[in-house]
Amino acid sequence: MTQFLPAVTRRRTALALALLLPVSLLFAQPARADADAQSINARIEAEPAFRDAKLPLATRRADLLGRLTLDEKVSLLHQYQPAIPRLGIGPFKTGTEALHGMAWLGEATVFPQAVGLGSTWDPALIRRVGSVVGDEARGFNRINPAKNGLNLWAPVVNQLRDPRWGRNEEGYSEDPLLTSEIATAYGHGLQGDDPRYLKTAPTLKHFAAYNVEADRSRVSSSVRARVLREYEYKAFQPALENGAATGVMASYNLLNGRPTHVAPELNELVRSWSRDDLMIVGDASGVGNLTGTQRYFATPAQAAAATIKAGVDSFTENDANGGPTVASVKAALAQGLLAEADVDRAVGHLLSIRFRLGEFDPAGLNPYEKIGPEVINAPAHQELAREAARKQLVLLKNEGKTLPLQAAKTRNVAVIGPLADTLYEDWYSGTMPYRITPKKGIADRLGTSATVNAEEGIDRIALRSVSTGRYVSAPTATTGGALVADSAAAGDEQAFDVFDWGGGNVTLRSVANGKLVSRAGDMSLVNDQDKPNGWFVQQKFGLEKLANGNYVLRYRGNEVKESWYGKNQYVVLRADGTLTVGAETSDGAAQFSKDVLVSGTAKAVAAAKKADAAVVVVGSMPFVNGREDDDRQSTELALGQQALVKAVTAANPNTVVVLESSYPLTASWDAAKVPALLWTSHAGQETGRALADVLFGDYSPSGRLPQTWYRTDAELPSALDYDNIKAGWTYQYHRAKPLYSFGHGLTYSEFRYSPLRVDRPVVSATGTVKVSLDVTNVGKVRSDEVVQLYSHQRTSRVEQPLKVLRGFQRLSFAPGQRRTVSFEVKVTDLGSWDVTRNKWVVESSAHDLMAGSSSTDLRSRSAILVRGEEIPPRDLSRVTSAADFDDYAGIELIDASKVRGDAVRGTKAGDWIAFRGVRLGQGVRSITASVSRAGTGSASIQVRIGRPDGPIAGTLTATGTGDRYQWSSVSGAVDSRLARGVRDIYLVFGAGDTNIRDLSLR
């Protein structure tokens, strides 16, 4: 860009001189005037219009597009967009991770995990956090513009439907309103406030219905229209409508049988939500999966063409190597699968964002261009990290007012647990510049006159080979080395500290050098890692006890589930005694006896007995307990940690338990005996100070849970069941009593809620209701309170949620202060998706409005009557999509074609779909449907009345079409004596895989 700056200056100078020339001089010297004009025009022509910051963006973009060759345009479709030297255009990279701080670029301010940002319920704070992250992104960009790009891949708005999802820490909440409010705030902060220029360009991840890591590129999320519209899309749409994001990333999964990277909704729906151009990007290898794991297209050219036509503008493939992407797009062009106009549209979207970032403008216009590396981890950013860590803490329980602890009386504190004196980063975390651990935070708060001791509460063991009688030794060098069973006795070199993370996962720390045991590339075990790390976590093991009392070591790194990985998971001994992964089953594994050299629980109990207070910090390790590409099988707190909590609580009744985790924890253990319980996410560099602020009453905890905490894993539906309504996911539909409810969180004060007031008891479908109440801090402590407003629709054609969050405000109250809290509720927001007419509808019904401090602690209520409409009986005389059913059992939603449309697959006898309240008049005589069967032979679809086992009114026979995308129209007679009036119609599938796209009754 800089080589054009002199031209810009010359052009403006020439224009200014021309305007200053006296008119008489111009007339007196026509030849010279003509020459000057020609010179000026030449200079204007020499300066491309796309460099003219005064021109409209659309004009500049069109000019630049017109100057690019087809090869140059194709090259820009890859994540690493190359430089175009002849136009003075530098390289540009899409995708810099910025989930809760700048990631993977070196030391940067690390804020709480996204789930922790969600637990603040504080959009104003999150906007400030986003602004700081945007500043640091600019700082890193100044260091290396080609590598540290300004297109940020954040925030993640996938809702936290299932706490077992490995990426739970990346999202904000299970609720669409809370998710969208936090995401909008973070996005606005990342972008900045300038009306013209972007500080950074945030990208929402991942569209859509993505909550499973297991086999994620092959699994299809089967999601009916109501759930998509009322739940999934509501996290993405508000952020885009409010201009808080410049792009969207497609997800790995298939949605109703079609890979999201070729979903028509990208162009047709997602782009309609934004008034500005969007840059839609693929996830890493997402386009490659179309011909790879998904086998959806036969050739890369077909995949590239379909991806671009669906709306993806940038291919995230093959790391920095754009060659394969360029080749596939060129092949698609050569084969007529793509037109140059298709490429132009995609490149135009990309260029729009680059223009808004100020890349092609002269220096001095963009207010963000002066931000440099000095802002990274600035003191003000550290303070904000502490504030965010403090505000995300949730006080779950506080019996007998155990908290806050009195600093003057608490002079000896035992900080206990595997997380007592360490802080962990997650996969998308930045590198912490410093680490204020719980122990350090407490020690700093109490000062040097207090005694603060840390005990990890973990066992130290030695392993002795049963076959050789030798103990396993580890090298003492800091670089580590191979573990060998070679010692006759057990000393420090033979000692290992065992961290129990639950689910059968442990990590082993070698006492010899303080390093973790890891599986090396040659399959041997080595002690050379500071912490669990890497894409495939090599530091996860199982210490499994056999029936004979001996133990075997099992390698549990998350790559063992990959189909290309060998079957060996168990540790054996080589001839020289070296430990190596070399057996498929425990039968072939080396057996060890386990000597407990030091009992971690005993040491913890001894410390707790001597202390004025015990603070037990337990929870998860982000690289071990699930993460991207690795779902959890359980949300239960590790058994070893449970035992530690019980022992310490029994030893010291003044015990506070801190749960530090990336997800909700179930409690099969006796939580009733724990007097005080706090939850925190892995909250970054200031975790310890924030925790100390709350423990000693310098700050009243006021975070709220952004997810339901279920009592047991047994309450959770299948991870593959995305139907919140039918499966009972989230507080909206879950009927069992939770361990801790959505929105729950205590403070050190008490609040009184007045009766709820509404400005009108009756409102139209297009109206707005103003809701207000008075909230008073009746306690003696200044504290925030998160006032939450919910609604429930009493009557409806369809099942409605138990309650839905309609608004929230986090407000600060001085002791005794009363504040009037007001909400405005648009009645259109109370609507639901009507599958009978494919539109939003507001039904006539009474709605309960409820305010309180959580979804189950609702202290103030009122009601309104909405005058909307009554959904008429269904009309199936017109051709109706089979996917627009009202209810179902067993079926799967699939793609009707590779381009657009949904269909229904019945996979076994007894699967069914239902259409409620169908107007049949005096009786219908036939049914016609589009069906397909990839197999041979025939299968039936019965038309039943009233219920799945009701009277049979007709039958359709589907024969093999050879291809499931080959649809055949079939008809069958219907008994009009049964199919008359207004009835529920069931289509019940017989044996055999059969698909139905649409139907009509006449």
TrEMBL record:
Q: Which organism is it from?
A: Kribbella deserti
Family to which the UniProt record says this protein belongs: Belongs to the glycosyl hydrolase 3 family.
**Signal: is it a keyword of this entry?**
yes
- Read off the InterPro entries from this record: Actin-crosslinking, BXL, CBM6, Cellulose-bd_IV, Fn3-like, Galactose-bd-like_sf, GH, Glyco_hydro_3_C
Keyword entries, A-Z:
Hydrolase, Signal
Name-wise, this protein is Glycoside hydrolase family 3 C-terminal domain-containing protein
Q: Which PANTHER family match?
A: BETA-D-XYLOSIDASE 5-RELATED, SUGAR HYDROLASE-RELATED
Instruction: Look up the domain of life of the source.
Output: Bacteria
Region forming the signal peptide: 1-33
